[in-house]
Amino acid sequence: MRSSLRGWGGVTAMAFVCALVAVLALCLPKSAVTPDSTRTTGGTATTSTGTATTGQADEDCDDPEKQTLSPSSADGPTIREIKNRTGEKRKLVVGVDQNSYRWGYRNPNSGRTAELEGFDIDLVHRIAEDILGDPEAVQFKAIPTDQRIPAIQDGRVDMVVRTMTINCARIEDVAFSAPYFKTGQQVLAPKSSPVTGYDGTLAGKRVCTAAGSTAYSTLKEDRDSGDLPATTDISTTVPNQLDCLVRLQLGEVDAVVTDGALAASQAAQDPTVQLKGDAFTAEYYGVAMKKDADDLVRRVNRILVDYRKDTANGWQASYRKWLSATLGKDAKKSEPPAPEYLRTG
Prior knowledge:
The termini are far apart. A hairpin with a 3-residue loop joins strand 3 and strand 4. Helix 3 crosses helix 8. By secondary structure, the protein is an alpha/beta fold.
């Protein structure tokens, strides 16, 4: 291996473990994890219908993070269907990541079962506890980035909790909860790289993004509009964001663009890379569900209100446990503003 691989042992090991787990479909004793079907795309991000998307917002779409339903604890048809599942099937089926460090990942040092851990996983357990009365009543499904929306639309999962940004293009296909995290796109590159951020230093550079991600759609839109150098090569897309780190490790790309919250965790794993420049977007993560699952959306929004108020075992506690080491002790920078609900029907 090249000398550039030094210092990447932790990332490589985790990537190997994740790949092995996906292949073997390792089952956990409390929360089974099943790999979802994958659809790899290259060069362009695609929607669930297979058409290319630039990520451009609808002209009538303002503040997509506010396009959600008001909270409610009432059981509707979607929730009743979940509760009526019997036996081993009486679980909340959730699409998650299993290789995003401190968000949704398998910790190989956590024991024989290597259970899923992270900020997103904590939220999933809270939702399951509220709906089914048992935080462990979850069937996790490992969903690649480009399969998040198809998995929801096809009914493979009840929801996706996977660092999924709320944007105008996506709210045409799925329904979102109120935001549960604030972040922004940033550049990750080797410390020795001449790249200084999301600027002209990306000219002639190869940039990796996850297929179907907001990072890719933002880069494409900015390059088409001239806000990004025309010579920036954005053709490298991968099913999962961690794969970009492997590409960077092998010298196949010069930089990675992804959510700053994820990039910070990856930089913490390896001392040879760092965030370059400030975040160049403001984005919010939300829980994604089917468009017609109004009762489930309202219920999740109710849960999020309580989760943020619970300082002992809620949002703040999860942030301190998983993210403070990489994003800093000041959680206010990452906590979204008080939710607003523009849709009431």
